[in-house]
Amino acid sequence: GEDVEQSLFLSVREGDSSVINCTYTDSSSTYLYWYKQEPGAGLQLLTYIFSNMDMKQDQRLTVLLNKKDKHLSLRIADTQTGDSAIYFCAVDRGSTLGRLYFGRGTQLTVWP
Amino acid sequence: EAGVTQSPTHLIKTRGQQATLRCSPISGHTSVYWYQQALGLGLQFLLWYDEGEERNRGNFPPRFSGRQFPNYSSELNVNALELEDSALYLCASSLEAGHLGYGYTFGSGTRLTVV
Question: Which of B42, B48, B101 shows the shortest C-beta gap to A99?
Fold first, then answer.
């Protein structure tokens, strides 16, 4: 299977919370990231969590990490139409070789 | 502060030709990474350069090559282009070798189309 898996699509109504889920296979991952890609643009780092943390909050973003289940989630509170984008989960698999392993991305669509 | 810049934005080539893509990292960043984002396949790791040396290479054929210059800018060359090389090529840079929690900073990419 894939190193990092995400569901491909998520639709929510404006003002609701969005939860994007990610599972990974390698428990040695040290840093786990969430990136956002808007149409025609590169990837923007949204947030990351260190493997010894369970939760990290940054304004409207909350990252939850369940190391036992190798599950990472990104919650966006009060989702806005401007949040519509593709969200990528990425892990390092404990690598020191500069490589990140990305999921295929979740297309978030926010309806007004 | 200027971000990671890539050129050209779009590139159209014929099968069998060579393509050269360029990347300038953020000032002070010594590591440059290349990824291929093909439709439906997510991001695939191509190459990592640091201090002018190739440090790691993804599972791509040798016709994908590159280099890093003394000013830390980088070039990706794709020889003998095939139709399946059509993709968005993303360059990223980081302050230190590897990413150490700061993550990469990505450029906007070069859209390569092979016809």
Answer: B48
Q: DSSP letters along B4-55, please? A: -EEE-SEEEE-TT--EEEEEEPPTT--EEEEEEEETTTEEEEEEEEETTEEE
In three-state secondary structure terms, B100 is: coil
The secondary structure of residue A81, as a DSSP letter, is: G
- Residue tagged 């095939």 (tokens): B82
Closest alpha carbon to A40 in B68, B112, B111: B111
CB contact under 8 A, A45 and B103: yes
CB-closest option in B42, B58, B103 to A33: B103
Which residues in chain A are contacts of B97 at CB distance < 8 A?
98
SS (H, E, C) B51-65: CCEEEEECCCCCCEE
Per-residue pLDDT tens digits for A94-110? 766 778 899 999 999 99
Running DSSP on this structure, what letter comes out for residue B81?
-
The 10s digit of each residue's pLDDT in B35-53 is: 999 987 789 999 999 999 9
The strand order across the sheet containing B64-68 reads: B5-7, B19-24, B74-78, B64-68
Chain A, chain B: beta-carbon pairs less than 8 Å apart? 66
Q: Closest chain B residue to A95 measured between Cα atoms?
A: B98
